Amino acid sequence: MTYFRKLVSETTRLSQMLERDDRWLIIINADPDAMASAMALRRIMAHRVDEVGIAHVNEVKRPDNLAMMRFLRIPTVTLTPELKAAYTRFAMVDSQPHHHPDFKNCDFSIVIDHHPTHPDHPVKAAFADIRPDYGSVSTILTEYLYNLRIRPGKLLATALVYGIKTDTQSFERHFIEADVKAFSYLTKCADMVLMRKIIHSEFHRRWLKFFSKAFRKMRFVGTHGLFVYMDTIESPDILVMLADFFTRVHGLSWNTLAAVVKKQVVVIFRGDGIGRNMGHMAAKVFGDIGSAGGHRGAARAEIELAKLGGKPVEEFLYKRLTGKKLPTKDRCPI
């Protein structure tokens, strides 16, 4: 049985780039799909080059991400100038060089991603495999492993399964047949007990108070939308947690959670994937004043607080989202 597409040209070109004296650093914006994909690329590079490291540019705080790093022994460390100087070549998975400011000073030779490309930011890596139709980069890397006849070990297989699960939201977001095939193939090698431990590590205990606050501050938008402004919080992961929670509420087709995080206004979009395209919505509403975009069912926008010119954040966001003034609570009941 042939599980995946043949990658003769791709694997040949990738193998030709890996020279024995090279020291590769795989740089990621750490989330489950990125960490799993980095592990897979590291496995491909192992025994072919002098050294392979993994570094992340973001602060990892989400409990499931921390559990994944712990249980699956993912050796990622924070990117620093000193660490970067110790390596000669750089690779990237689950991102593109324009996605984060800390990526800009690296000359990436390998880029493997599934996010849409941007015409203003072409990827110039010598080896670039970008497939926006795929639900996860973990699937793409699984195909590479299969074509290179590398059978993933238990920890790597578990990481890739979790990467596919999270980026497709258990196949509720966009996916293609290759994602399903990869998931099926990997589960034969994965440790599902470890998987459950990671899945059940969703919340920090100190985060529980934010549910109460979200319930108090939520505002319905029309008949199927929800908007919640959470004031100032410590991490955007709290918004992600809450936005994912509200997707489970019957009758809501989309929700938007926002807050100020370290002088940045962060807006998280979630949708059911049937009606509004959240990626298009984010770009249309906030693309002119910040970075904004994403997938049909999930998107994000980040705006420098200073760009609001002192305007009340909640009122500004609501007006942008709906075209209307922020109503009082009695006119926008919870």
TrEMBL record:
Superkingdom of the source species: Bacteria
Domain DDH: 28-164
SUPFAM superfamilies associated with the record: DHH phosphoesterases
Any one Pfam family match given in the protein's UniProt record, by short name: DHH
Lineage of the species this protein comes from: Bacteria, Pseudomonadati, Thermodesulfobacteriota, Desulfovibrionia, Desulfovibrionales
Protein name: Phosphoesterase RecJ domain protein
